[in-house]
Automatic annotation (TrEMBL):
The keyword Oxidoreductase applies. Residues 3-110 form the Beta-lactamase hydrolase-like protein phosphatase-like domain. GO terms for biological process: sulfide oxidation, using sulfide:quinone oxidoreductase. This is Sulfide:quinone oxidoreductase. It comes from the Bacteria. Keywords: FAD, Flavoprotein, Oxidoreductase, Quinone, Transit peptide. SUPFAM superfamilies: (Phosphotyrosine protein) phosphatases II (SSF52799), FAD/NAD(P)-binding domain (SSF51905). Residues 150-270 form the FAD/NAD(P)-binding domain. Its cofactor is FAD. It comes from Sulfitobacter marinus. GO terms for molecular function: FAD binding; hydrolase activity; quinone binding; sulfide:quinone oxidoreductase activity.
Amino acid sequence: MEIKKLTERLSVSPQITADDMAKLKAEGFRAIICNRPDGEGTDQPSFAEIETAAKKQGFEAVYIPVAAGKVVDTEADAFGAAMDALPAPVLAYCRSGTRSATLWSLSQAGKSDLADILSKTKAAGYDMSGVVRRIANGDKTPTDTGDVKYEVVIVGAGAGGIATAASLKARKPDLEIAIIDPADVHYYQPGWTMVGGGVFDASQTAKTMGSLIPQGVHWIKAAVAAFEPANNAVILDGCRVVKYKRLVVCPGLKLDWGKIEGLNETLGQNGVTSNYRYDLAPYTWELVSTMTSGRAIFTQPPMPIKCAGAPQKAMYLSGDAWHRRGVLKDIDIQFNNAGGVLFGIKDYVPALMEYVQKYDAKLNFFHNLVAVDGPAKKACFEVTKPDTPVERVEMDFDMMHVCPPQSAPDFIRVSPLADAAGWVDVDQATLRHKSYDNIWALGDVMNAPNAKTMAAARKQAPVVASNMVADMDGKSATSQYDGYGSCPLTVERGKIVLAEFGYGGVLLPSFPKAIIDGTKPSRAAWFLKERLLPPIYWQGMLKGHEWLAKPEPISAKVD
């Protein structure tokens, strides 16, 4: 008897016997639901036998038989009603547990988030892809899917999605493309560090989504609920279905603010801020520009995160502002990093350490923020040093810049497209899905071992577009991605350490050392970040102009 827990109230299992009742009682169960019709198997006990044994142990027992592969809406409704009425915890069973898990999934439609339902059943070993449309449709069998179909569907209208659409249109102007994204506003997120440093205004980093969708590309303003790659279908919230010949997946990351206890309640007040949100980056500068003394904590969660240098960029620009105002000596800067190194590519660390010392910042490695008490201005960290028991430490603060934990979006994590860690599973060179050859992915959501930065997406979009067009023409992949990523580390106002690297930490500088030596702070790199990169983004990358981003031929070797 293999019991799989779905929730605190419900577990499911394969067929049980009357002899199992004593053990089930010992494990705390109080009710049984039988979802297997009598007579389905020759060695199967009848429900009457199970019910008699259950009552002897003080259980309630309910019979909701379901024919294999034929779960109907009324049965799901009956299951939900039974769950509401029965004392918990409940064990539901059938031949394998699948019907019971399916009934529970359908009974939760409209009550729980689809991704949460799929996550719980997937964790228990049950695949609900066959009923995902019904779950999305609120536990009712769709009678009209209203399918629309496009040659290319792109999920996500961020940097990667719009750039890929534009690059595809540049290669095949008549290609029918749809982009799915519910957002009204598109953000230039690399600019938020500069907003938090008092360099940019927040308004410089935002444009309406409609103004950026490439001409001739359909914009489906909706959220994705699930994928059906076997049917070449994307399921939208509300159970609308969009079908495709080829799919590009690039919805970005989920910022999991709620994973830190008390953080949501205090963001934007009590000195707690983050450059990872458009509305909070101006508050960062407000705090920095008015602070004259006290403790400032800058946090970095476990990897992966987008723009891994962003948490320390905030620290450097803040330290520089305090230095220029002559108050740095009265400010205690603490950089609390859940990881064990300042920056993952060692070539850039010496230059960064000079600024750590200049701002007299204390580096606290293996410190992961787990809770915040905003009104009391206290932060709690779990310290997980190697070969040392985990301990909790509490720190007072006057200002705290938080980088939130990050993960793949829920609808990606529970989908058939994801690897075991929840990321879209692609070939790291061609960016084509490993299991579905008409699907590609780019940006922060895929599992290639590169830095998650806008600069990476700038290089990836032409690779995806080139390889998709080759596939349309009946050819093999023609282009490869070398893992390029860039992190312009704003070490002071007017100077940047321009980190550029690829797979394996190999340095991939875009300019000769005589122009920009990326391992040293440079005014030229600041000029690039402040003056050139925003127009390159808005007028180049998002328009299909592959400036400094021509795809590399597949013939070259990628380590």
